[in-house]
Amino acid sequence: xxxxxxxxxxxxxxxxxxxxxxxxxxxxxxxxxxxxxxxxxxxxxxxxxxxxxxxxxxxxxxxxxxxxxxxxxxxxxxxxxxxxxxxxxxxxxxxxxxxxxxxxxxxxxxxxxxxxxxxxxxxxxxxxxxxxxxxxxxxxxxx
Length: 143
Prior knowledge:
It is a single chain. The protein is α+β, with helices and mostly antiparallel strands. The chain has one domain (6-134): Trna Endonuclease, Chain: A, domain 1 (3-Layer(aba) Sandwich). Helix content is 45%, strand content 17%. Helix 1 packs antiparallel against helix 2 and helix 2 runs parallel beside helix 5 (124-134).
């Protein structure tokens, strides 16, 4: 088994990001495409001692399934990505450019900030990556 150099993985993620930015259709990326791109960056560039996960709240649920999930504590509007680093909690809601937050998403972000978490939303891939880099959740930098 060969081991890849971690810097090479970072470079691949950065080059992929640059390639995506060069495409005119990137501005029309869906939230799911943005999410997948962010996950690729996290898989190769997450800062040391950063724990992160996706909250699978979105999508249609049959009424019975929605009722079960609600009874288990699922909260409507919870941000897409959660991070813990150095004892701090970070939450990021990903939005496609031009797509507004729902009232439930706005309310949850406010509640998280009131509890001392760092919580926000980002429109598009560039804004999300800049936010993650500024908080030290990603190593390396995309220009």
